[in-house]
Amino acid sequence: MSDLSAQTVSFASNAANVFFHILTQCNLHCRHCYINPAQHGTQRLALDTIRAWLGVMARRSPGANLIFLGGEPTLHPDLADAVKSARELGYGSITIDTNGYLFHDILSKITPVQVDYISFSLDGASPATNDPIRGQGSFEVCTQGIRRAKARGFRTSLIYTVSRLNLAELAAVPALLGELKIDRFFIQVIGLRGQSATGAEDRSGDLQVSRREWETHVLPVARQAAGLGIPVIYPKVYLSPGEPFACAGKVADNYFIFPNGRVYRCPLCEDFPLHSLCLEHDRLVEMPPINEKDLFQLNIPEGCVMNKLIQPGNLSYDADGKAEFQIACCLIKERL
Ligand code: SF4
Ligand code: SF4
Predict the structure, then answer these.
(1) Whose CA is nearest to atom 8 of ligand 2?
(2) Which of 52, 93, 286, 319 is the most exposed place for a label (fewest CB within 10 A)?
(3) How far apart are the CA of 70 and the centre of ligand 1, in A?
């Protein structure tokens, strides 16, 4: 019998992660999209620029894990060339995050040797739940994309962003994972970022699940999927009493790069001009204070400072005004 106790994936001191948004354009308009063109830019990076920035990051963090993102990265006609350049630069692993539309015949231009994972996003186990969130017809296209990728020998991940809109259907996902032969399952928690934060209908934060819902719905499904032999990764979200808090901005090596050159260390800062680094003339330069780095230094009883600033609705306090629990860094994951 396999051991299904969760392991906290501590921040690796020797493995950097580079999340490279090579464009912000997308064919879908998902309700919870975190892309914010006003803060992230609207340009599609030229291949020369992509190569130059990949080189900058490879020199700074040799062997980093690289994730190509958008927008929809397969809308970029030079994605396959970017993948090849990244391989030559020695990135430790390469993942493409896609909505499954797989534009520009990308599967025929890359190989499973060049790309470690193709990661597909679905927000329901059926069109009835997924399509109102991600777009009409997107369930069918995405699942077909997964089948085509598997048929060509690619390893696949599935990313499911949990919100009130699809919490009930999460229980049906493990069966879908098995049917699609998914190799790795990521459960994400919806955050108040991008569209979720600025879209008028979602502004109230009603889409976020409570601690109780998280524990009663999400954790059992994670265990069920792991029981099928599929590695499951999900955010820790809530720290148990006595568990140490750590801010990835201080102790880890993550870079979230956007087409306008902004480089963030914290995803919760991405809706604000708080980036601590910037790619200017193909060089990585430090931004002057005040930026996200100054926030990382603050120690508060509620755990993550940015969580308290942008989504305080998920905190609770006792009668004496004491925080009842700490919110973990959004980059801390559990693995089953
Ligand atoms: S969440 Fe992804 S697929 Fe959906 S609109 Fe945003 S970039 Fe496109
Ligand atoms: S999410 Fe919070 S704890 Fe994590 S890097 Fe950002 S500010 Fe730090």
Answers:
(1) 247
(2) 319
(3) 8
Q: What CA–CA distances, in Å, run from 39 to 35, 43, 53, 87?
A: 8, 12, 19, 29
Query: Which pLDDT value is given to residue 191?
Result: 67
- In the three-class reduction of DSSP (H, G, I as helix; E, B as strand; rest coil), residue 94 is classed as strand
> Which residues in the chain show pLDDT less than 50?
1-3, 197-204
CA–CA separation, 19 and 35 (whole Å): 13
Q: Is 46 exposed, middle or buried (0-12, 13-18, 19+ CB in 10 A)?
A: exposed
Look up residue 12 and give its DSSP letter. Answer: P
Whose atoms come closest to the Cα of 138: which ligand?
1
| pLDDT of 10 | 53
Number of domains comprising the chain: 1
pLDDT of 207: 80
Could you tell me the residue range of the domain that residue 222 belongs to?
1-336
CATH number assigned to the domain comprising residue 267: 3.20.20.70
User: Encoding tokens for residue 331?
Assistant: 């980059």
